[in-house]
Design brief:
Blueprint: H1 3-12, E1 18-23, E2 29-37, E3 40-45, E4 50-51, H2 57-64, E5 68-74
Antiparallel strand pairs: 1-2, 1-5, 2-3, 3-4
């Protein structure tokens, strides 16, 4: 799945958290949580236990351009990992 396809998937399911397993530009494999909220893509930052402000689609695409999405799935029962609205 391309980053563009993942963004379309997020946009089609606003507010639902998706966890994606991605391969970065250096070959590292990461798990990233994101959702479409407030007109853009929000990325979950575990170290901060917070969502970043929504990023516009072009900016989100730029962030994700080096990723190769290996899999993506909805996170059931954890729409907000921080437990806040």
């Amino acid at each position: 799945m391309s980053p563009e396809a993942l963004i379309r998937h997020l946009r089609a399911h606003p507010g639902r958290t998706v966890e994606a397993k991605v391969r970065g530009s250096l070959g590292q494999t990461l798990r990233v949580r994101m959702r479409w909220q407030g007109g853009g893509v929000q990325f979950w930052i575990p170290a901060w236990k917070a969502w970043l402000d929504p990023k516009s689609e072009p900016l989100a695409r730029e962030v994700m351009e080096a990723w190769r999405v290996l899999e993506a799935r909805f996170v059931e029962g954890e729409d907000d990992p921080a437990g806040t609205p």
